[in-house]
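Researcher: Let's run the pair from yesterday's discussion. Sequence first, then tokens, for each.
Model: Starting with the first of the pair.
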Amino acid sequence: MTSQVSSPAEQADEADEANEAVVGEQRSAPATNGAEKEVRRLDRVIIRFAGDSGDGMQLTGDRFTSETASFGNDLSTLPNFPAEIRAPAGTLPGVSSFQLHFADHDILTPGDAPNVLVAMNPAALKANIGDVPRGGEIIVNTDEFAKRAMAKVGYATSPLEDGSLAGYRVHPVPLTTLTVEALKDFGLSRKEAERSKNMFALGLLSWMYHRPTEGTETFLRTKFAKKPQIAEANVAAFRAGWNFGETTEDFAVSYEVAPATKAFPTGTYRNISGNLALSYGLIAAARQADLPLYLGSYPITPASDILHELSKHKNFGVRTFQAEDEIAGIGAALGAAFGGALGVTTTSGPGVALKSETIGLAVSLELPLLIVDIQRGGPSTGLPTKTEQADLLQAMYGRNGEAPVPIVAPKTPADCFDAAVEAARIALTYRTPVFLLSDGYLANGSEPWRIPDVDTLPDLSVRFATGPNHALDDGTEVFWPYKRDPETLARPWALPGTPGLEHRIGGIEKQDGTGNISYDPANHELMVRTRQAKVDGIDVPDLEVDDPDGAKTLVLGWGSTYGPITAAVRRLRLAGRPIAQAHLRHLNPFPKNLGEILKRYEKVVVPEMNLGQLASLVRARYLVDARSHTQVNGMPFKAEQLAAALKEAIDD
């Protein structure tokens, strides 16, 4: 929630991340052929791998990222791929890409524009060339630039020969031919050998940027352990790419990006994606609560990775159920919560719509349940593999009747761990379903994560009801399932089968205290207002504001907009433009001091990847003139564009 004030040096580092990396120290290193090759030291690099969805671009990017993380750079990634399992080869809709921004200092976004583009075919080049700044490097697989492949994406002439790439540093490399030649002794068919061209490209880039290689070789031998010939062929292709960079005259320069030694506090770090961090957060929460974790889920992009990951951890008391549909998934999770487990269901926007009736049932039953919504582009099936923040109002109001549900949103991939723990705290403490709103950008993106000390995690232990909790007028002791904790308004959690704690359960309105079915108008109003009061009274931290200069304009964000907003704010401050920043983790209830903060500023700007949903809530709740800056193109904000919009708001 808190935005840290950056030092001038840090602000300068982040201020121009869209531009070409700054060249610093230069030195020479001997090449294997006896000649010396120049080595340039950079403070940051943005690389984009692009090709067909079957070219292994996500794997290539992931491996480069893993080696970069082990080297100690700060990093941020942006995978981008088609929704189809195997999109049409050689077409623009079929292009898959993976962008990685790594640096020797603290960074916040995957970068606005790549310094280096690796294009495996004409479609990859055409789909991405518009993002590459003039002077950027382009590594092109020339083997794929046949007339038919170029015509498929609208190239009448070869861009490698017609001068259209004159403003770039182009490296034409016959990746396919070189890979097949490197693997000629492995007895593979040409088609099988060609599949390793992504490893050749990875080896070349690993040489260019002095990335470690041992981890990738170990990974390949592990991944293809049952096919050792394929494993060794991929390792050979990887090494061939490295050696090609070392020996060819076309690559006369390599680059170094030093570890980000000053960006991280002391600790043990690993690279982590948002979905993986969220999975670990759910496991940690269940362990801290000393409860079994039960996931009832139906596979849906981009949430399925959580189901896949949690299914690996039975040793931590995790049980996963892949249901036949979304409704069955949440029904099973709610049933598990009734039985004393930390119940979780994972989905995306279309699944939330199907789960809405059961979420309302959970509100009525007042049981802890986590609804994890990894938002994607909509409406309906929409853009399954692209990102959006358009489910906020659905999470806030998307149920019949008055059915308030708390909402928590992480801000970075690593923060998904803490957000999951926080969502579990609220659900268990207040006996309520809780929405956890992540999105595709966070889910698939990655960054370094400092592994927390278990001793620093909150105690989430709960007390189950063990006996009667109410005395009738005649002195008889009975159990009332809706007798509330006066501080939290939570009702008791009674495990089924506990002697003497039998009680009625279901979706029809209950009588306050006794839990008996009630159609009494006054009782219904009491229960509706009590459930609302319970959510309104949830203890959430005050919102903290980063405002070192006494600004008149506040930028208010939530969720994954944190990185682009913070990068944009750093740019503006470096340019002498004062601006304040605050970022919401809790969207229902809002922090108690939000209204007072908003009224301090003459202007409030709310950037969102929707058409202004948080801005609408803020305007209605606090009667302030919150201005929206919105984007719904399936991609995260670019820091440069956001900085321009915020500058315009300041000057308006």
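Model: Moving on to the second of the pair.
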Amino acid sequence: MPGGSAVLRAGGRRLLREAVRRFRVRMALLSVLTAIRVAAMLSTPVMLARAVDAAHTQEDLGAATAWLAVTLGVALLADAAEDVLGAYCGSHITVWLRHRLLGRVLALGPHGQRRFPTGDVLSRLTESASGPSAFPVLLVTAAAALATTAGAVTALAMIDWWLAAAFAAGVPPLIVALRLFVTQATDPFARYQACQAAIATRLLDARQGIRTIQASGTAAAEARRILGPLPELRRAGEETWAVQGRVSRRLALLAPLTQVLVVGVAGLRLATGDVTPGQLVASASYAAMAVASASLFDTFVALLNCQVGAGRINEVLAAVPAVRPPDLPVPLPDGPGRLRLRRVTVRIGDRAVLDRLDLDVPPGATVAVVGASGTGKSLLVSTVGRLLDPDEGVVELDGVPVTDLPLPRLRHAVAYAFERPALLGATVHDTIAYARPGATRAEVRRAARAAAADDFIRALPDGYDTPLARAPLSGGELQRLGLARAALTDARIVVLDDATSSLDTATELKVTQALQRVLAGRTSLVVARRPATAARADLVAWLDAGRIRVLAPHADLWPDPGYRAVFATRPTATPEAAGT
């Protein structure tokens, strides 16, 4: 995938350039320290040559030795300060990359999870984001090496231009070898990281389904599936090592040959009296500095790794969120929570799951959304709070298109409770108050009582302060926490997306009666898969063939055999899912 590798490198370069601009003050200070170190290193052979000539002539030996010691001391101090500042700058780049990556992953929402699975994101967040931490030091190291080489060649030319000409003869093969490595190694580098991400994704999937794997006795087969990318990982690693080995061998041959050539020419010029013994020593030192650019190969390898890692981060950053904030947001006016969907179309692939759907939800009413499996009930309610945007049509909240509202304000106005709510936060109190972190304990307990969750929460080891990791919860108890979270908000629209499916009938009735008191005056949409749930709603929106077939009370629809068939096809809940 040469084209893909080029795009990856280009994206990585852009992101790294942005990092340099963002941390330009630290990078500038790092560059100053590097320049001081390079200047001291370039001055060292001169000081050494003076010391040798002073020892030869027995003139000003003390002063020459003192200057040599000062030069070496400055080089050592600058090198130490460079290491400290480089590590500090690199850690800030890693933090910056991880914050940007996390922000974009959250902005991409559920649809981004299909493109970037959990294991892949984890790999990018850890390995790919940490690699560029070495970039500042590597960059200034490469610049210092090139500056040192240029300075050493200049010094050779000042001693004798034949010495510079001898070194120049070995430069073209060196450039060709480094260019060859960058071209050939990018693709296997990228494939190696992609294989690592694939293994991590499969491992996380298996971890989530560990009970199913154990129950089916497929642990060995699952291990083979998880490690399936290993052969490709090995091939990518071997390709990288092969390219690196070929270039290393060539550089290992070119560098000493070039140095021997320069020293040999210096020896000939000494024999003819064109250079002094001190200049011969300086020439040997400068030749060693000049050919040290060959050691840049390891730096190039590390820089390429940084570039590939940054490129993988940039792939996520370049992904366009399915839901984008409005360019010119308008405020949400006060209103009773009137909800209207006009000609709403949502496509999955080539199929219009929702097809020019119209629905008018009266303010303060509870509307049950009913339909056969796969008719798009969850898609419909997802458009209300912009968890996804329809391909066509408009969703309005109190007369304002939801696409014109600021996303934070919309998400505050529309509260969701899902079938399997995520446990977010450190404690049970935190997960209920997740959308309102400033809620008091009394408010949290009132919401928990509304969701019939207060009793089992107080039975936990530390009650509401029980860490989530030490709170064994059934499926039904999880759903009641999600309902409590929704009850705590002051949203004008509440969406329950199959949020009571894991409750037995008696508990569902208890929870629903409590929520009816708490949610009085709020507009509610309930994805209903039980006749009893639909019966408790004010109206039922019967979703069929992508449209609302009818909006009417459950009692008026029940005589219709087609309506009853919707519930007859509903899968029976398992005992484990009942969660009582």
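Researcher: Give me one sentence on the second I can quote.
Model: The chain is about 65% helix and 10% strand.
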